[in-house]
Amino acid sequence: MDGFYLAAGDEVTLIREVTESVVEAFAEVSGDHSPNHVDEGEMSRSAYEGRIAHGALLVAFMSACSTAIVERVPGVRDTETPVSLGYDRIRFIGPVFIGDTVSLRYRVREVDAQRRRARSEITVTNQHGQPVCVGEHILKWVG
Predict the structure, then answer these.
(1) How do residues 101-127 score in pLDDT, each as one tens digit?
(2) Is the residue at 4 inside a domain?
(3) Is residue 106 within 8 Å of residue 138, measured between CB atoms?
(4) Looking at the domain assignment, is residue 1 inside a domain?
(5) How many domains does the chain have?
(6) Is residue 99 part of a domain?
(7) For residues 100 and 91, what is the distance between their CA atoms, to the nearest angstrom?
(8) Which domain holds residue 68?
(9) How many CB atoms lie within 10 A of CB 52?
(10) Is 87 left (phi over 0), alpha (psi -120 to 50) or beta?
(11) pLDDT by residue (tens digit) across 30-71?
C-alpha cells in the first residue's frame, strides 16, 4: 500500500432500502419537500408514475460508503482524520422509486500518498441491476 491507508482496487458495497419513511425523513432534514418526493397524487400522473427519491439522498448513501471503507483501516484516526473533499461528476441516470433497494459500489481508483488523498468511483444500481447514479469521491487525510 506504499504506507497509505487505502490502495487502488479497495472497495466496499452497501445495500440501502429506499422506504417511504427514509424519503420523508430526508425531506424533513433537507427541507426539500418537492412534489417529486412527497406528493404521490401528483407524481402518479407524471411520466414516473410515482414518487422518486431525492438525488441528495443517494449522495448521503455515498457518504456512508466512504465511512465504511475508512472504518476498515485499523488505527486510521490515530494520527490523521479522513475527511471528504467532495463529490465530482455525479450523474443521476435513472429514477429511484420508493420501495427500491439500491446497491452502492465504492471503489478506490487511485491513491496520491504524497497529497494524502484517494479518489474513488461510485456506482449505484437498483434491484434490477440498472445503474441509477454514478460519481467520484475525493477523500483526504488531514494530520
Answers:
(1) 999 999 999 999 999 999 999 999 999
(2) no
(3) no
(4) no
(5) 1
(6) yes
(7) 18
(8) 11-142
(9) 21
(10) beta
(11) 999 999 999 999 999 999 999 999 999 999 999 999 999 999
